[in-house]
Design a protein that fits this description.
Shape: elongated
Largest sheet: 4 strands, antiparallel
Order of helices and strands: EEEEEEEE
Helix content: under 10%
Radius of gyration: 20 Å
Strand content: over 45%
Strand order of the largest sheet: 2-1-5-6
Number of strands: 8
């Protein structure tokens, strides 16, 4: 079973047990439960449910693995020749790492393997 969720301005394809980095959530602590309620699509084998734009009542639960993960440092340098103009700045994006623990979608028939 997998689902496509929306977090911030990003969309992720997730399954139970996946670990992913979402935008930094300041109010979340390590080991806390987190719920994504913007589920756009869910699929379980042959059956799937598509939201318009989201599936009502569906949710994906996750557990926070690391509340603060820093991304790679990006350095920006601007230079204009013959003008004595130089500018150097940097940026380091913050993320929160979560592990997906469950996907709940009402009305989706689960396919059991025989």
């Amino acid at each position: 079973m997998f689902a496509i969720i929306e977090s911030g301005s990003h969309q992720y394809r997730v399954q139970t047990g996946d670990t992913l980095q979402v935008d930094f959530q300041a109010e979340i602590e390590n080991g806390a439960e987190f719920t994504f309620d913007k589920v756009l699509l869910a699929n379980d084998g042959g059956a799937s449910v598509v939201g318009k734009p989201t599936i009502a009542g569906a949710k994906v639960t996750a557990k926070v693995v690391e509340p603060l993960v820093k991304g790679d440092k990006i350095e920006i340098g601007k230079f204009k020749r013959r003008k004595h103009s130089r500018k150097h700045t940097g940026h380091r994006q913050k993320y929160t790492r979560v592990r997906i623990t469950g996907i709940e979608v009402p009305g989706l028939e689960t396919k059991s393997e025989a």
